[in-house]
Amino acid sequence: MTALQLRGIKKSFGKTVVLRGVDLDIDGGEVLCITGPSGSGKSTLLRCTNLLITPDAGEIYLDSVRVNQRSVRPEWVRQKIGMVFQSFNLFTHLSARKNVMLALRHSRKVSRAEAEKKAIYELNRVGLGDRMDSFPAQLSGGQQQRVAIARALAMDPEVMLFDEPTSALDAESTHEVLAVMTRLAREGMTMAVVTHEIGFARAVAHQIAFFDNGLIVEQGTPADIFEHPQLERTRAFIQKILR
Amino acid sequence: MGDALPDTDPAPSSGGPADVVAALAASPPRPPRRSVGARLRQALWASRLSVLFLSTGVGIALALIVVMGIAGLYDLSYVIQELPQGVAPAKTSLEFATFTYLFGMVGALGLGLIRANPPKKSLPLRQKVWRWPLYGFASGYVAAIRGTPFLVQMLITLNVFLLEAPQFAYLGWSVFYWSGFFALLINTTGYQAEAFRAGFQSVDAGQIEAAKAVGLGRFRIFFLITLPQGFRLVTLPLANEWISNFKTATVLSIIGVVELFYWSGRNVAVFDGKPIEAFVLLVFFYLIINVTLSRVVTYLEKVRRIPGLGTPTSELTMSSRFFGFGSGR
Predict the structure, then answer these.
(1) Number of other CB atoms surrounding residue A172 within 10 Å
(2) Per-residue pLDDT for B247 more than 50?
């Protein structure tokens, strides 16, 4: 079943055209890794998906419901799509536990006790059961990113978007975060991951989409893309990041 | 799915419901929240006199004044005798400063929010028609308040009151008191609005985006993220503004509000013919009140501090800061 469908997504900022009509399907339980040179519009595509950026044209379907239309509130869409950012973006004035609880209590209207239970559950799930009362500034980058994942997971999203979740991390923290993401994928979470982590993409992804200049230029299984890329452009990029 | 998964797994076990129960049992009991009164009492205790006098130049200044009195430069016994008379005008000063400050904060929050979000050119017309005038009003208000002397603002307010509502007298205050009150209110609102604007604008845009991404609406984002963080960021400028407001209140003496300056100038300097004593009394009251307040604010900033947010506390001691050596803590 198709969980997320993008049809002809276009977006420009002023005169810069960032997305030139992107089509993309993600099935339920599937992991899609999006890779490609920086500035090619990968992040913009993710931001369009949960309507943080309104696309200029195109349709977005979540479980066959069109979400980018006036009768659908963006808040409703965003509760169903979890997002993890490159720079973590944890709420600095709240402890890890409260970071996770906030959205549950105030956009899902879950009671305080319920939200706390859920927060403890999710933080344990990402391996941070012992750092629940720490503030973001007291956590390492990897720990912060795991709290951010727990915060997104707490809303029981149907799709998770990861926008270069490990680009700001050192090798060890990257490993921590990728381990959590790998486990999520194994549990059957539908995920779209913008990443340059080839090892992760090879091991976990069902599909790889190679993005260039506002378009998906090549798409296929990891074996296809990494072993037998069709385009010269893809081959050159893969060569570079494999080195 | 591939099988070359990362081999170490930072998460312990599966995280089933049993884990939650265990985690709930294991998490240490949090200390009960103390009341505001209890916290304030602790803050006042922490700012006890020894700290207050020894760690600032105020102690030296007050000591100098006392020494001058003992040396016979002015009449120390008279100052001590008059001291209790100053309590009532000091109360009036405090009332004016505090109430205008608190009521002004409400308006300043709104103005600061408007000023922190200037309307974009890309807005649809139906939003432009009210966003631009609103922004223009807020900016004009702040510019007018910050660009004119308080004395002028006060006299304008007074004359408006005298012409339009000369009978405006409630709660035992005359029309002069009320116009002074409103002038001070209008003034402090403008200054606080700028402080709040700075605070709101320094809240990290990424966090606002993250709040949107978990499905929070505009109002919730403001009250749950922007406001609590912005407030912590502007604690110091806000405390500054209270002190400034308290001192600006001296100008109200001109229209006959019996606050500290009026009392010392008229009763002490004019009727008793003791100008130096009058200023000694004034300095005493202002320093005691302002220094106590800033001590309390510093203390509250320290205990209510959240790592990574707000003004960092200095690790330097007086001697290491000024002379480059001394104990580190």
Answers:
(1) 10
(2) yes
Bridge-based pairing state of the strands A31-35 and A207-212:
parallel
**Alpha helix (H) ranges present in chain B?**
17-26, 36-46, 49-54, 57-70, 76-82, 87-116, 125-147, 150-164, 175-201, 205-213, 218-221, 227-233, 235-248, 260-262, 275-303, 318-323
Is residue B130 scored above 50 in pLDDT? Answer: yes
Chains A, B: CB contacts under 8 A, how many? 150
A229 beta partners: none
Minimum-distance CB partner of A93 among B2, B4, B228: B228
* Nearest Cα residue to A22 out of A217, A216, A225: A216
Beta strands in A37-180 (DSSP E): 57-62, 65-66, 81-84, 159-163
Domain boundaries along the sequence of chain B: 91-261
Interface of B with A in 281-310 (CB under 8 A): 306-309
Which residue type, as a one-letter code, is found at position B231? Answer: F
- The mean predicted confidence, pLDDT, of chain B is 79
Helix B175-201 to helix B235-248 angle (10° resolution) is 160
Domain B91-261 has CATH 3.90.1300.10: no
Q: The complex's ipTM?
A: 0.88
Instruction: Report residue A215: phi and psi, to 5°.
Output: -140, 155
Contact A151 B220 (CB under 8 A): no
Separation of first and last alpha carbons in chain A: 37
Q: What are the tokens at B166?
A: 């000369």
Q: What residues in B contact A81, CB-CB < 8 Å?
A: 213
